[in-house]
Write a structure and sequence with these properties.
With about 400 residues, this protein is of the alpha+beta class. The chain folds into three domains: about 5-110, Orthogonal Bundle (Butyryl-Coa Dehydrogenase, subunit A, domain 1), CATH 1.10.540; about 125-235, Butyryl-CoA Dehydrogenase, subunit A, domain 2 (Beta Barrel), CATH 2.40.110; about 245-400, Butyryl-CoA Dehydrogenase, subunit A, domain 3 (Up-down Bundle), CATH 1.20.140. It has helices at about 5-25, 30-35, 35-50, 70-80, 85-90, 95-105, 110-120, 240-280, 290-320, 330-355, 355-360, 365-370, 380-400; strands spanning about 125-130, 145-150, 155-165, 170-180, 190-195, 200-205, 220-230, 235. The protein is globular. It starts with 6 loop residues before the first helix and ends with a helix. The mean pLDDT is about 95. The chain binds flavin-adenine dinucleotide. Flavin-adenine dinucleotide binds near residues 132 and 386.
Length: about 400
C-alpha cells in the first residue's frame, strides 16, 4: 500500500487549499448570517474562478467536464475542501449531487445522461436524493411505504419523504419507491427520476434542523409525492435494483464524507491550538496551552485525526483495488469511527474557546451544530457497529484455531 501523494495531486490540493483560505474563509461570516439563496450570486462568482483554474468537478467524469480524479485522489481533495462548509459546493463536488452523478453515470440511459447528468456535472442544475420516510426507520429502508405503480407507460408515485437534502431549488429528485412489492425484500424498490416541477411533487417544508431552516442547497425538505406521474423511461437502472444501486452510491460517498470531516477536524484543531497558545489565563501571563488538560486534548486530537485519516485512506485504497464489497467492513469502521473523532475534536475546540466557542464569531459552533448529524446519516453509528461486530464474530467462530 502506497499513500505517497503524486506531484500532480500535490499541485492540485495546494491550489485548492490556497483558494479555500483566500476566497472562502472570508465569505464564511456572510454564510453564517445570510440566507443561502441570497449568497448564490457571490458563490457563482467563486465557481467561475474555480472553472477558470480548471479545478471544477474534481471527481466527476471528464467527458462531462469534470477532472476525473480517482477515489484516492478525490479523498485528498475532499479533505482540503472540507475545511470550509462551502468548499465542496464551490468546487462542484457536493452531496447529494456527487452521489447522484455517480449513479446516473453508471446506470443512466443516454437520454437521462443528456437531460440530467450533463447539466448536473456542469453545475447548471441541482438534484436531491429522496429515500428516507417520516414514519418508517431510515436505518432499515426495506420498510418503505412509498410506491410507484405502473399505469400504461407511466409510474404513479405516492408517498411521504423527509430529509431530502437540498430539494429546495433542485431540478429533479431521485426517488426510492416500491415497484415490486412481491419480490424479495431487497429487490422491491427502484430508483426513479422525478422532475421537481411535476404537479405531484409537493415540497411541504424545509425542516428546521438544529435551529436552522435554511434554503436552497443548505436545506432538508419534507416532500409529499401525490399521484406523481412520470414516464417509465425515468426508471434509473433495472427495476427492483434500488437497494443494489443505493449501496454502490454509499460506499465511495462515505470516503468523501469521512475525508470532509477530517478537513473540518484540521480546521478546528488549528483554531484550538492557536487559541490555546494565545489565550492568557493568569495574571503572570500563562496561556491555556500551559495547562496539561489542554495539552492532553491537543495530543489526543492529533492522534485521533491521524488514525482516522489512515483508516479512511486505507478504506479508499481497498475500494479502488478490491471493490466496494471487499471493503464493506472498512467502510463501516470509518463511518462511525471518523464521525466520533469529528465530534470529539469539534467539542474540544469549542471548549477551549469558552464563551467565544458558542458564538458564530468562529466557524466552530456551525460545525458543532451541523455535524452532529454525521453519526446519523449514511447509516447511524449503531447500525455500522452491529454490522461489523456480527461479521467479526462470524469470522472468529468460523476459524477453528
Ligand atoms: C442532516 C441529514 C441529512 C440527510 N440527508 C438525507 C438525504 O439527502 N436523503 C435521504 O433519503 N435521507 C437523508 N437523511 C436521512 C438519514 O438517512 C436517516 O436519518 C438515517 O438513515 C436514520 O434513519 P431515521 O432517522 O429514520 O432513524 P431510525 O432508523 O429511526 O433510527 C433511530 C436510531 O436508532 C438506532 N438504531 C437504528 N437501527 C438500529 C440497529 N439495527 N441497532 C441498534 N440501533 C439502531 C440508531 O441510534 C439511530 O440513530 C438525512 C439525515 C440527516 C440528519
Amino acid at each position: 500500500m502506497d499513500f505517497a501523494v503524486s506531484e500532480k495531486m500535490q499541485a492540485v490540493t495546494g491550489m485548492m487549499d490556497d483558494f479555500v483560505r483566500k476566497e472562502l474563509f472570508p465569505l464564511e461570516p456572510e454564510f453564517l448570517t445570510t440566507d443561502f439563496r441570497d449568497l448564490l450570486p457571490l458563490l457563482e462568482e467563486k465557481r467561475r474562478m474555480v472553472r477558470q483554474m480548471e479545478l471544477w468537478a474534481p471527481n466527476h467524469p471528464p467527458e462531462y467536464g469534470g477532472m476525473g480524479l480517482n477515489l484516492m485522489d478525490h479523498a485528498l481533495v475532499s479533505e482540503v475542501l472540507g475545511q470550509s462548509p462551502i468548499g465542496h459546493y464551490v468546487f462542484g463536488c457536493h452531496a447529494p449531487d456527487a452521489g447522484n452523478i455517480e449513479i446516473l453515470h453508471k446506470y443512466g440511459t443516454e437520454k437521462q445522461k443528456i437531460q440530467y447528468l450533463k447539466p448536473l456535472v456542469e453545475g447548471k442544475i441541482r438534484s436531491c436524493f429522496s429515500m428516507t420516510e417520516v414514519d418508517l426507520p431510515g436505518s432499515n429502508p426495506i420498510l418503505m411505504d412509498t410506491t410507484a405503480v405502473t399505469d400504461g407507460s407511466d409510474y404513479v408515485i405516492n408517498g411521504q419523504k423527509w430529509y431530502s437534502t437540498a430539494a429546495d431549488g433542485a431540478a429533479f429528485a431521485i426517488v426510492m419507491a416500491v415497484t415490486n412489492p412481491d419480490a424479495a425484500p431487497h429487490m422491491r424498490a427502484s430508483m426513479i427520476i422525478v422532475p421537481t416541477d411535476n404537479p405531484g411533487f409537493n415540497l411541504v417544508r424545509n425542516i428546521p434542523v438544529m435551529g436552522h431552516t435554511g434554503s436552497d442547497f443548505a436545506s432538508h425538505a419534507e416532500i409529499l409525492y401525490q399521484s406523481c406521474r412520470v414516464p417509465r423511461e425515468n426508471l434509473l437502472g433495472p427495476e427492483g435494483w434500488g437497494f443494489v444501486i443505493a449501496q454502490e452510491r454509499l460506499g465511495p460517498g462515505r470516503i468523501h464524507h469521512c475525508m470532509r470531516w477530517l478537513g473540518i477536524c484540521n480546521r478546528v484543531f488549528d483554531l484550538m491550538c492557536r487559541r490555546a497558545a494565545t489565550r492568557v489565563i493568569t495574571a503572570d501571563g500563562n496561556t491555556l496551552a500551559s495547562r496539561q488538560i489542554v495539552q492532553a486534548w491537543i495530543a489526543e486530537s492529533a492522534a485521533e485525526i491521524q488514525a482516522a485519516r489512515l483508516m479512511t485512506l486505507h478504506a479508499a485504497w481497498k475500494i479502488e483495488n478490491l471493490g466496494v464489497k471487499e471493503a464493506r467492513e472498512d467502510i463501516s469502521l470509518i463511518k462511525f469511527y471518523v464521525a466520533g473523532v469529528l465530534q470529539r475534536v469539534v467539542d474540544r475546540a469549542l471548549q477551549v474557546h469558552g464563551g467565544m466557542g458558542m458564538t458564530d464569531d468562529t466557524i466552530i459552533a456551525y460545525f458543532y451544530r451541523h455535524e452532529r448529524a454525521a453519526r446519523i446519516y449514511d447509516g447511524a453509528d449503531e447500525v455500522h457497529k452491529v454490522t461489523v461486530a456480527r461479521r467479526i464474530i462470524k469470522q472468529k467462530v468460523a476459524r477453528k484455531s
